[in-house]
Amino acid sequence: MRCAQLIAELCAYLDQEGPQAWADFEAHLAACRKCRQLVETCRQTMLLYRSEPLPPLPAAMHSRLMTAVRRARPAK
Questions:
Q1: Nearest in space to 40 (alpha carbons), one of 14, 16, 18
Q2: What is the pTM assigned to this prediction?
Q3: Which pick of 1, 44, 45, 71 has the fewest CB atoms within 10 Å?
Q4: Contact at 8 Å (CB) between 34 and 3?
């Protein structure tokens, strides 16, 4: 695996998404200090972001969202 491929798959790796095995990805991390630093920085950023409370949803956006949900629901 090359650095560019690792970067292309980084989000899926951090979210542990996808059916692929991560052995090649992790082998590259073991050998590449720059990519290890990138992955760790991304992990830390995600943890920081996820630890913050969600901002309130503006009333107008909430109304539009609920209208869209009601329209998308199948009729009974």
A1: 14
A2: 0.61
A3: 71
A4: yes
Stretch (H or E) spanning 41: helix 33-51
Cβ–Cβ under 8 Å, residues 61 and 32: no
In this predicted model, what pLDDT tens digit does every residue of 20-74 receive, in sequence order? 678 888 899 999 999 999 999 999 999 998 899 988 999 999 999 999 999 988 7
Token reading at 67: 């209208």
The token duo for 29 is: 């991390």
Structure tokens at 16: 């542990």
| Residue labelled with tokens 């899926």 | 12
Which has more confidence, 14 or 58?
58
